[in-house]
Hints:
9 strands; two-stranded antiparallel ribbon; alpha/beta; 7-stranded mixed sheet; globular
Amino acid sequence: MVSDAIRNAMVQRVARQGVQDQLVLGALNTVPRHGFIEPALSAQAYIDASLPIGHHQTISQPYIVARMIEVMRNGGQLSKVLEIGTGCGYQAAVLARVARDVYSIERIRPLHELAKSNLRQLRIPNLRLHYGDGMLGLPQAAPFDGIILAAAGLEVPQALLEQLTIGGRLVAPVGERNQYLELIVRTGKSEWTRETLESCHFVPLRA
């Protein structure tokens, strides 16, 4: 069992690193991160680090999860959000406490099944998991007012940009060796603005 105090200490640490959105911090405090990783690693569940989840993939560090969601939310209401790269399901669980409806895509079948297993016990009614190619997005559920990528490409696929609502915000790691977070806001039918945020490190985005 992991005490609430340990999880709360993690959230306080994330807040000291600069995340100020109280809704996001509250969501981080309610999701049991230890339930998404191998039992052998559970002692490290609440340190601020990414951890292996198999298949050369990782669970993102708590700070970067919170930071990306904070930037995407921007203090507003999120009605429909798309996550690219479900992984073990942790970030999807956090997102589901911040947005009204969350859709998440995973391309690696065993991880898709792992996420379903991890999330089943939490009984989250507003989260839908999909197995498929995240680079194509989820056109049948589009448009989204927020899209978040948990893997880094050299650029954000155009298909994802097209699935944003006008005013929608997409947050993604971009780059190969040197990666950084990028915020893309759709400002018109064929117009998007881009802003480079901070450096980061993610697994590669693949079809």
